[in-house]
Amino acid sequence: MTSARETVLGRVRDALALAPTPATVVPRAYRTGRVLPDPERLALFTDRLLDYRAEVHPCTADRTALVLADVLRDHGARRIGVPAGLDPRWLDAYDGEVCQDAADIPAPRLDSLDAVVTGSAAGCAETGTIFLDGSPDQGRRALSLVPDLHLCVVDLSAVEAGVPEAVARLVPERPTTLISGPSATSDIELERVEGVHGPRTLVVVIRTDR
């Protein structure tokens, strides 16, 4: 017996097969090519992140491990999750438990982690947005959404001035997650509530010489 759902979907498929498919031209007249010197881009990106209530730590690449260890210690993170492709040298100074994520680990088990550490694909200074694209150093989306603390490493060289420039760095076929501060929403009385749809705390380590 055919279900109502199958009947409806079948009719949709038939209609799509019969409908004409003219080529659609999407205008791409965006303002592009904007650039900012490194100090201005860093200042703008930091300002936007702080406005979103993120915690920001600029550092040089050779201090990545020390800064990450200090942040994790300050937040009391003794058990952290990492994607399989994260540079292990970033955690050389961390003395807690490191759990490497895998696709077969159920999402609810990620809730037992104190924090997650990931890399990033790109950033946008104008909006204070960080882009993750599922690359080996960033992992699957659940890993960056379930733990209550997300410690994200961003290279200043991958931070663009505007949105079109940042999006141009991405591969369209990859799953993209956009992060603009900790997860937050407002209740019926417009009181800000954090940690509803993702991490309650976002810490961004910006490596200024990579």
From TrEMBL:
SUPFAM superfamilies found in the cross-reference section: NagB/RpiA/CoA transferase-like (SSF100950)
Limits of the LUD domain: 92-206
Name by which UniProt lists this protein: Lactate utilization protein C
Species for this entry: Streptomyces arboris
